[in-house]
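tool_call predict_complex ligand=glycine
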Amino acid sequence: MKVLVIGSGGREHCLAKEIAESSLVDKVYCAPGNAGTSLCAENVDIGASDIDRLFRFAVDKKIDLTVPGPEVPLVNGIVDKFQEANLKIFGPTKKAAMLEASKVFAKEVMRKYRVPTADFKVFDDHRSAKEYIKTKFDPLVIKADGLAAGKGVIVCQSQEQANAAVDEIMVQKKFGSAGFRIVVEDYLQGEEASILVFTDGRTIVPLVSSQDHKQIFDGDKGPNTGGMGAYAPAPVVEKRIFTKIINKVFLPLIEGLKQDGIIYKGILYAGIMIEKGEPYVLEFNVRFGDPETQAVLPKLKSDLVEVMLKTINGDLKNCRLEWDERFCLCVVLASGGYPGSYAKGKQIYGLDKLTDSADIFVFHAGTQKTRDQQGNLNFFTNGGRVLNVVALGETVLEAQRKVYSAIEKISFENMYYRRDIGYKAVKCKK
Ligand code: AMP
Ligand code: GLY
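tool_result ok
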């Protein structure tokens, strides 16, 4: 089989590697990819959102399976376009991708099908939003309806902050049309976890739980990022809670969507807040998480491509996934200054010291490579999140030790990373 992976992050390097290892696969392409994907796939110079060119490439190269990583092509209907031409593609249709594209849609579906989530109200004008805010207790959460590159959610500690957030989104139009409507949502307090499942619209096949670390600084301080690290499984998702999430979140949601004429196929990702032992949905994503994927997929022993094909073919009924029992932990190495402004083009040293290990992996994100006159490969930074260093360990502490000692071998100017990835799992184990 020939497989095309779409995207250029750590998630896509991890997907491309897993896919390349499948016994069903002869060749992997990655569009546009990064320096890491070029080691296990052939990079193709087409942007992840350029659906027309991706489509033409898939037709020309007779691609047997396409796997989009990020949400934008899904939300813009890449699956519908490929399906119309009978090209196999893994992911939800445009209608189903509304679960991520519109927070209003997601919240209304949850309300309709009684999926536990924070109480909320939707507004399309700022004055009535502010009237409502006057009637609520602090803190409150204001969410722009549409895609805002992960920045459209503002947790507000006071009514003044909430009003300012409403103005930013609806009056100053910081996120453009993504902010024509907002969700004003009650604040939930607890511990967050990510649960991803494969679904063919009927059957749910869960992946192991994981936990992201969104803030830039240790102890979950500072501004949110795309994710500074992750580990799997997340001990906070005890078996009892995991079962509740499947039964109270995923099954009613998939069933409800079906009643509304939407057969959801692909990965469905729920960001969950666990409050007093009860799960509440914070958000849905219609794709693999980044960096969760880099902590989850190295634990998967089953053939990823086989599961993806079963998902597309509506054949998940008897599918069981096999997992490596060990913990997997991923630490993101970022360019100093990220998530604000940062420099690119810094040479990365030490990657050659980390090859050929069965339990330590490096997934590239913002990297590029050049070959010097002697034929040696040189790697350079090319983004905010640069590398993901990942290790498997018998305990979370062992995985942490392996990752952090591997990181000591890698360097680039102004390299920054969190030193505490996995700290909640460590506390949980005591
Ligand atoms: P979302 O994109 O909806 O997951 O929101 C991004 C982040 O905002 C989440 O990971 C949470 O940390 C926080 N958040 C979102 N909704 C709530 C809520 N209702 N209560 C508390 N925190 C929230
Ligand atoms: N880790 C958060 C996300 O993928 O959206």
